[in-house]
Design a protein that fits this description.
InterPro entries: DgoD-like, Dipeptide_epimerase, Enolase-like_C_sf, Enolase-like_N, Enolase_C-like, Mandelate_racemase_C, Mandelate_racemase_N_dom. Keywords: Isomerase, Magnesium, Membrane, Metal-binding, Transmembrane, Transmembrane helix. There is one protein chain. Helix content is 30%, strand content 24%. It is of the alpha/beta class. The protein folds into two domains: 105 residues, Enolase-like, N-terminal domain (Enolase-like, domain 1, 2-Layer Sandwich), CATH 3.30.390; 199 residues, Enolase-like C-terminal domain (TIM Barrel, Alpha-Beta Barrel), CATH 3.20.20.120. The strands form three sheets. Strands 5-6-7-8-9-10-11-12 form an eight-stranded parallel sheet. The chain has a three-stranded antiparallel sheet with strand order 1-2-3. Strands 4-14-13 form a three-stranded antiparallel sheet, with no helix packed on it. α5 runs parallel beside α6.
Length: 328
């Protein structure tokens, strides 16, 4: 990894990007992606990073802006871990510093990070929570997308999973319960997932209440999301989870995400690379981790009514690496 570039100035702004249609999960619905963009400069070069403050983790756009605008002095990626907690604000700034470093060096960010050049990766495409009939219809409406991710909500999830499988016998399927299951639903719902050929169930139980996962026999991998933020969380997940969802907004940026991916692999976890609903600028850094991933879930740009220019190129669910004009 190269020298850690210093940025002299940080600017932060809030943006709202309309969604193509409402995005519904167990915790509610939204019609816009609210993001924070950090910009850092050194000389005539500028780097950008995007993040999504998430209310589930006590974050707001205004707090992230205040945090970023309150920083002063030369900033480096190494210094960020001491200045800011893991979360959206640090992610936006960390990714902006990676982008700046790439521009100053005239190299791609993955080269600087010592990673293999990213290849096109198939992303999940998210189906919002709804009735079994609605989710089946939504699945049939995207026949060109072959890896679908269902948002689940608790009661009735067995019917939802079966309906989507019946509608799309050709697709690979994963599902995200967003902490909505009760302990007594674990075994019957996991059995239903296995019967319908699902590959993965994300975060079935509330974070902090997932001890019931220990010792549960299952034919479907269970993935930690809300229970897994940084590499320090991994030890507590052993025996409870088979996989972890690594999101830059949770890790606080690409720097810690790389460390978490390496540690998760070493500890035997499967890996999903995910992101919040945001633009191509947020998804681009996460694509550098696709080489670690068993599943890639970076469909935020596909859920928007419009995206940045230039956007990530996405064709039939396959995402190509970012152009340097976008990021890195």
């Amino acid at each position: 990894m190269s020298h850690d570039v210093e940025a002299q100035r940080v600017e932060a702004s809030a943006e709202a990007w309309p969604l193509a249609k409402p995005f519904v999960i167990a915790r509610g619905a939204k019609t816009e992606a609210h993001v924070v963009v950090a910009q850092v400069t050194a000389g005539s070069c500028r780097g950008r990073g995007e993040a999504v403050p998430y209310a589930r983790y006590g974050e707001t756009v205004d707090d992230a802006l205040q945090t970023l605008r309150g920083l002063s002095g030369p900033l480096t990626r190494a210094r960020l871990a001491d200045l800011l907690p893991a979360g959206a604000a640090r992610n936006a700034l960390d990714c902006a510093l990676w982008d700046l470093d790439a521009k100053l060096a005239g190299r791609r960010a993955w080269e600087i990070a010592g990673l293999s050049a990213p290849q096109p990766a198939m992303t999940c495409y998210t189906l919002s929570l709804g009735s079994p009939e609605q989710m089946a219809a939504d699945a049939q409406a995207v026949p060109h997308l072959k890896l679908l991710k269902l948002k689940l909500g608790g009661d009735g999830d067995d019917a939802r999973m079966a309906a989507v499988r019946a509608a799309r016998p050709d697709a690979r399927l994963v599902a995200d319960a967003n902490e909505a299951w009760r302990p007594e639903q674990l075994e019957p719902f996991l059995a239903a997932a296995a019967a319908s050929g699902y590959e993965l169930i994300e975060q079935p139980l509330p974070a902090g209440n997932d001890a019931a996962l220990a010792g549960i026999k299952r034919a479907v991998a269970v993935c930690a999301d809300e229970s897994a933020h940084t590499s320090t969380d991994l030890a507590a997940l052993a025996g409870r989870y088979d996989a972890v969802n690594i999101k830059l907004d949770k890790t606080g940026g690409l720097t810690e995400a790389i460390a978490m991916a390496q540690a998760a692999k070493a500890q035997g976890f499967k890996i999903m690379i995910g992101s919040m609903v945001a633009t191509s600028l947020a998804a681009a850094p996460a694509l550098l981790l696709a080489g670690f991933a068993d599943w890639v879930d970076l469909d935020g740009p596909l859920l928007l009514a419009r995206d940045r220019d230039p956007p990530l190129a996405i064709a039939d669910g396959w995402i190509s690496p970012p152009a340097p004009e976008l990021w890195g």
